[in-house]
Amino acid sequence: MLAFFAIAASLGLATAASHDLGLRTKWQVPTEADSRSPCPGINTLANHGILPRNGLGVTPDMLFQAFSKTFGYNDFSSQALANLSLAFLHEDGTFELHDLAEHGKIEHDASLVHDDVLPGEKYASVATNVTKFELLKALSSDGVHFHEDDFALARHILERNLATPLTELEQGRANGEPGLILLVFGKAKKDGSLYFDLPAFESVFKFNRFPEGFTTPSVPIDISAVGASAARLDARKQELNAYGLH
């Protein structure tokens, strides 16, 4: 999965009641001509028309508005995330979503639901590998939810099977990705750890669609709980490594 979110580092969890989204439009399956990224969250925004449905002519300000008004990040977090697109801008100040699939910039191997980049290719696949998703979903520890520890197990398995290990930077990005999406679409336990209900998990990661009943958090998400989520995920990965689990 695209590490578009993770490089911004840490987010604070909003636990207050949510308010009606207001901006949501009808979900549409993208056409073959539409440009998409390897990031389920960003693709969801385009599939609902919050970003351009064709994925073209996207600007950093469009991302800022989508992250803040739809996903509920605070202004600082939204700007930090939107600024990641600056490396992809064309001469006219826009980019297309597929630009984000350029391998080695933000995108990395060991994606949760996409294929690794083929040898010699500049761009990674942006198509959801449905078989890979179903294998991922099967890692749910209780068959009802998908927890941070389940993400940790998935990352452990995927990374151990790489011919070329992820760099330290790529590992940090990969560890942060689940938390950034969980903070928007998931829920929190009493201990602060995060989880998805499986239908919401499937909606976002398989279909790139808002979960049923999704609302924007009423308390803006601050850039500090993703770091905590990433740390929990990494700690669990280290435990799995210590156990020698493959």
In short:
The protein has 246 residues and is mostly helical. It contains eight helices and three strands. Strands 1-3-2 form a three-stranded antiparallel sheet.
Helical content stands at: 25-40%
Our count of domains comes out at 1
CATH class: Mainly Alpha
Rg computed from alpha carbons, rounded to a whole number of angstroms: 17 Å
Strand order of the largest sheet: 1-3-2
List the helices and strands and how they pair.
Elements: H1 40-47, H2 60-70, H3 75-83, H4 130-137, E1 145-147, H5 148-160, H6 168-185, E2 187-188, E3 194-197, H7 198-205, H8 225-243
Antiparallel strand pairs: 1-3, 2-3
What are its keywords?
246 residues, mainly alpha, Chloroperoxidase, three-stranded antiparallel sheet, 8 helices, globular, disordered N terminus
